[in-house]
Amino acid sequence: MKDEKQVKVGRRDFLRKVGVGTVGAGATLATPLISSTSAQADSESNDEKRKARYKETDHVKTYYRVNRYPA
């Protein structure tokens, strides 16, 4: 009976540590992505920022048709 308690406590501690480690690793990986995105946005000129980016392609038209948006 004692062995079962020790295994359960050890498993719980392991899962807690894995959860904390995952959160820490995720924060570390997300930090460089945020800084590189802002650097890319700063390199656009005013004309590039204001240009039209929306294009109504076939898959966009299909999305509107399937979801019953007015044409």
TrEMBL record:
Classification via PROSITE patterns: TAT
InterPro entries: Formate_DH_TAT-contain, TAT_signal, TAT_signal_bac_arc
Domain of life: Bacteria
NCBIfam families in UniProt: formate_TAT, TAT_signal_seq
Protein name in UniProt: Formate dehydrogenase
Organism: Bradyrhizobium nitroreducens
